[in-house]
Design goal:
Number of strands: 0
Oligomer: single chain
Structural class: mainly alpha
Mean pLDDT: 89
Order of helices and strands: HHHHHH
Helix content: 55-70%
Distance between the termini: 63 Å
Strand content: under 5%
Number of helices: 6
Shape: elongated
Largest sheet: none
Low-confidence stretches: none
């Protein structure tokens, strides 16, 4: 039975991570095995991440990769995660909430 492929939930992040891991690993002079050992993963998994064959790594592996590659989460995933991202609908709801409760004071 063929193994079902996982859906890539964010191909932009997957592509960035793949390139970043490869480039950063070379900048630090690390082998696939070095990164695997430092992150508690396997060489095959790091190789698969670099080639976009592994998608949606766990949070724990992502954070371990940050440690192994001496980088921030923002750098690894290519997205600024320091501020929450809201859709236009969510922002409209927040604004309405603020207007309602600002007049209640």
């Amino acid at each position: 039975m063929a193994q079902e492929q996982r859906v890539d939930r964010n191909p932009t992040i997957t592509a960035h991570m793949a390139a970043y891991i490869h480039v950063r690993r070379h900048e630090l002079g690390l082998s696939l095995d070095d990164v695997a050992k430092r992150s508690g993963s396997s060489k095959a998994h790091i190789w698969a991440l670099e080639r976009r064959r592994s998608k949606n790594p766990t949070l724990w592996l992502t954070l371990a990769l940050c440690d192994a590659l001496q980088c921030s989460l923002n750098s690894l995933i290519g997205v600024d995660v320091s501020q929450p991202m809201f859709s236009e609908q969510e922002m409209a709801l927040i604004d309405a909430h603020r207007r309602i409760f600002a007049t209640a004071e």
